[in-house]
Sequence to fold (386 residues):
Amino acid sequence: MLFVKNGMIHDAIHPEAFLADILAENGKIRAIGENLAVPDGAEIVNAEGLQVYPGFVEAHGHIGLDGYGIGYEGMDYNEMNDILSPQMRGIDGVKPLDAAFPKAAAAGVTCVCVGPGSANVLGGTFTTIKTAGKRVDDMVVRDNVAMKCAFGENPKRVYRDKKDSSRMTTAALLREILFKAREYMEKKENAGDDISKRPAFDIKLEALIPVLKKEIPLKAHAHAAEDLFTALRIAREFDLKITLEHVTEGHLIVEELAKENVPLAVGPTLTSASKYELRNKSWTTPGLLAAAGCQVSIITDSPVIPQEYLPLCAGLAVQAGMDPFAALQAITINPARHAGIADRVGSLEAGKDADIVITDGCPFQVSTTVKHVFINGKAISPDCSV
Ligand SMILES: O=C1C[C@@H](C(=O)O)NC(=O)N1
Fold:
């Protein structure tokens, strides 16, 4: 049992912080309130004068699929030979012992949604994992939470001499496989128990059934305004759920995105504009979209920005005008909602996982020190060498 005593609670649900205790048992938050009774044998953490947050959550990254300080041998986030690879699963690329995980956890980033990169038009599924553990299966919060697809420069660049030399091609390839998957799904359903009528098993089309059934969203990589609109157009054509990832030109099309009511993961902004589609990168983007009523998450796209700088990115968005509470939500409850795991993480509420970060100040400021991090109620040492 864990008892966090008398901390200033920022639960990511209520804009105002409040003084309270937190009781956690078996990895879950049991109660949050004033003057809770301390159960016998509980590990007591005195949080007086300290700030208490839910563990920070990344909505979109590749930590663990890209080996820290390794080159090709550690690169496991992009299949580069097959532009339509929906059958890939991010979980199979994760290296839990990678050195990036303890750094992330020590900084308070306790849960990440990770998966394939953007080389392919369809890249495979994302998984959600905690940032501590030895075996990925034990770190999973929920697997196969979204299907990665990519628009814009990346697939066009990677496959330029092979399969994809224009934005039209990207869209056409995606439409073609979605049509095939829909036909495959309908045939399979119509066949019922009659095996002779079932279509021959196709692992790619099979992987797209949860997308067509709206069980998981298309996780659509798009930076430029026109690519964001193409993603939305195709999602509408096939009646799919969609989340928009990167949204670099979001501040140029705020009113349009606000009408769409789709989750937005904005970033990585703490990098230079290394390619044409990033030229309008701005720290104002998350704040403007949040102020217009969009559900905004801020992302590092780790390792593009090291995972531990997620709170710093929120701070830079605040410096550019984002409301501080919206920025806190953008690295806690909103990414949890974005990834479909808000029943488990993203806020301090009874019944949720005991992922708790205790600091001596606002986590957006570089002078702030993370004092304690708990994942599933277990202490993570703030020492990166663990
Ligand atoms: O800003 C970004 C996003 C990402 C991409 O390629 O889209 N990769 C990068 O290196 N920088």
In short: The mean pLDDT is 97.
